[in-house]
Amino acid sequence: MLLPGADTEAAARVAEKLRQAIESLTLAHQEQSIPVTASLGIVSRIPGPDTHPDTLVNAADKALYTAKGLGRNQCVMYQPDGGSDAQTAHP
Fold first, then answer.
1. What is the 3-state secondary structure (H, E, C) of 20-81?
2. For the chain, is the Cβ count within 10 Å smaller at the N or the C terminus?
3. Does domain 8-88 have CATH number 3.30.70.270?
């Protein structure tokens, strides 16, 4: 999802709202209810005008896998230093 003009906090809020909306869903299969969750990786800063879109996708992917590694069903902000910030993660 692209959010032009959104700062870091706004992007985190949108991601968390999306995560919560998905978490509130339940899929019915035969006679079972299947819970649905989502892990989201967030990138809020574009390093420069020449940044290739693949660079941003790769950064979001890294944050996504960090969220999954922390237990799934979380939003994690990518940090340019190569890490991810789990402070925005939903426990």
1. HHHHCCEEEECCEEEECCCCEEECCCCCCCCCCHHHHHHHHHHHHHHHHHCCCCCEEEECCC
2. C
3. yes
Bridge-based pairing state of the strands 84-85 and 75-78: antiparallel
pLDDT tens for 14-42 read 999 999 999 999 999 999 999 999 999 99
Distances (CA, A) of 27 to 35, 67, 71, 84: 6, 22, 21, 31
The answer to whether the CB of 47 falls within 8 A of the CB of 32 is no
Kind and range of the H or E run holding 58: helix 53-69
